[in-house]
Design brief:
7-stranded parallel beta sheet; 6 helices; binds NADP nicotinamide-adenine-dinucleotide phosphate
Length: about 220
């Protein structure tokens, strides 16, 4: 049974990814800071108190995982705070960089021994981190953190290919979650998670390190 580990699984896209993996019979280690009723009801293996930006928290997670081998790690957890040019808040920008970009990279480094040949690491980045696609400006902290995450993931795809570990760099779509104020313009978590899992399932040596929308479209950097 393939083993997946997901961050930020208590709500939003992470919760739905967990639900769909569980439904199709995969083994899910659902990590989160605080669990939720919806997550508990899925009956998966939950590890809470996992704050991805805390080294101590990741060390504790690693000791709980012991020698388990992971087929896939999905870096889903993230935050979005709005920073316009007129209202720049450097602390907010640093916090987003820390959680969205640096933490997934450091967590991957900490857990690297848990991967096998053909294991997969998926980074949920954002189209907001595409330089080519940026036509509306602003959102400094979120955009800067996600472009940094995509770059880290791209480098990892090159560094890990010799171990035959493949890296997915994925935009989930505009999704109706708390992050987007449950926007009516977005797709459902169900549709997004279905697409993300299709991308992860089709990840291999030839498309590792490419940037895809959940719907399969290859996105510009
Ligand atoms: N929704 C969209 O349209 C959209 C578009 C592009 C990319 N994304 C990306 O998709 C991912 C999931 O977003 P979402 O829409 O599902 O957002 P969400 O509903 O706000 O969920 C965010 C998740 O991340 C967790 N999280 C935040 N900081 C964390 C930390 N330091 N340690 C561990 N967990 C942390 C949250 O946990 P708590 O409950 O503890 O806060 C929550 O589980 C994010 O990376 C986001 O940037 C979303």
């Amino acid at each position: 049974m393939p083993k997946f580990l997901i961050t930020g699984s208590n709500r939003g896209i992470g919760l739905e990814l967990t639900r769909q993996l569980q439904e199709r019979g995969d083994y899910v280690i659902a990590t989160c800071r605080n669990t939720s009723e919806e997550l508990i009801n899925l009956g998966v293996n939950i590890i809470d108190n996992v704050d991805i930006s805390s080294g101590h928290s990741i060390t504790k997670l690693k000791s709980k995982l012991k020698d388990i081998k992971l087929d896939c790690l999905i870096h889903n957890a993230g935050i979005a705070e709005y920073n316009s040019f007129e209202d720049l808040d450097p602390e907010s920008i640093k916090k987003q960089f820390d959680i969205n970009a640096l933490s997934p990279l450091c967590m991957t480094r900490s857990l690297i021994n848990l991967f096998n040949k053909k294991s997969k690491i998926a980074f949920i980045t954002s189209r907001m981190g595409s330089i080519d696609d940026n036509t509306s400006g602003s959102s400094y902290g979120y955009r800067m953190s996600k472009v940094a995450l995509s770059m880290a993931a791209k480098s990892l795809s090159i560094d890990l290919i010799k171990k035959e570990i493949f890296v997915a760099i994925l935009h989930p779509g505009l999704v109706s979650t708390r992050m987007t104020g449950f926007t009516n313009n977005g797709i459902s978590t169900k549709e997004s998670a279905k697409g993300l899992l299709e991308r992860i399932d089709s990840l291999n040596s030839s498309n590792s390190g490419k940037f895809f929308h959940a719907n399969g479209e290859e996105l510009p950097w």
